[in-house]
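tool=predict chain=A
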Amino acid sequence: MIIDFHTHFYPEKIVERALATAREKAHIEPALDGRRASLLASMHHASVDRSVALPLVTAPGKGPGIIQWAQENNSDEIIMLGSVHPRDNDFFQTLELARKANLPGIKVHPEYQSFSFDELELDPVWQTVAEMGFFLITHAGEDSGFDPPYHSDPESLRKFHDRFPGLKLVLAHGGSWKQWSEVREFLAGCNIYFDLAFVGELLPRVQYKELVEALGIERCLFGTDSPWCDQAHALELLHDLKLGSYAEEMIHAGNASRLLN
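tool=predict ok
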């Protein structure tokens, strides 16, 4: 089995605008057109059995609508997550809706939502996420659509993890995008999961392998950031590392299955 732990698609009414905005800000050409049907076609082509889709609440007050959309699009092949805006005064309501919808995890993005994990006043949100049994997946590190300084980095994420050691935490892009030396310094060996979306496309093969081994075979999750990266190509990049059958099995699906139950 292969599970892509980091994918996106967009509602039909905004998909063209969403991709155009991302193209303009990040100067990246997507591999797909951002539609659900295109993700399914990509999965079938690449022999990906399930994709985890990561919606995002972009402003306070929009949580219930995103949870409803996620619930409507949840399926055996595409596992939808929930999302919450950390600055939403009604964050508990959004998380409760996600729990009732049986969504397994919550996605946040420090850049798009303009927050930092250093903000202690937001800790009740993370405490509630943990108490409700969700895992939390967050963008980490640089983002090509934004200018520095960025809202997350390996050192601040390590401090966040130390405050919430019981929270099931998934850091996207190998722990912090384009900050992988600091990832190895501050985050390797922690009880954290790391998706590998958009990592192999940038790192030389030797460095990619060293990063995966430093983070831990049983902590890494196959991910692509589709539609921004091609699923079949990302699988080839991972296979080229020659990690062995057990390591590939765990990264492809074993680790993800633990989080997704």
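The chain has ten helices and nine strands. The CA atoms of residues 81 and 105 lie 5 Å apart.
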